[in-house]
Design brief:
Largest sheet: none
Helix content: 40-55%
Oligomer: single chain
Number of helices: 9
Radius of gyration: 28 Å
Structural class: mainly alpha
Order of helices and strands: HHHHHHHHH
Distance between the termini: 85 Å
Shape: elongated
Amino acid sequence: MALEVTRLELLACDLRSEARRARDVGQARRLLALALVLEGASRTEAARAGGMDRQTLRDWVIRYNEAGVAGLVDRPRSGRPPRLNDAQMAELDRLVEAGPDVAVHGVVRWRCVDLQAQIKARFDVELSERQVGRLLHQLNFTRLSVRPRHPQADEAGQEAFKKTSPPW
């Protein structure tokens, strides 16, 4: 026997409008499948339209009956714990924000390979260059960087060398 949708405060048209507003794509698909069920479509047709099988649709009906629309969002998965804790991420953020010191770090700008060595030296955690790039993305750093400046550049000499012709 098919499991009934017992939560009836939202009609099929309301579920469709909730699906339009949903930020989670999976939640929107589940809402549309439930709307089809409420409209009288067979469970097989509704599951196929939602991109799932009948058993999965049954599981989502149970979650919808228990928690409503909010229950159709994917729950966070446990997964592997992060390699760097929050304090280490904050220190990495400060390190990247401050920029490298040529005398200490030996570089004029940070590259992922340079940060990889710093993470290994400071936290004793081995990461690949790609993982370092992902960490920088998590910290909202972009690949754009300012033009590198040589530490022994003569600013006054560069200003004097610039063209001083009047604009036309």
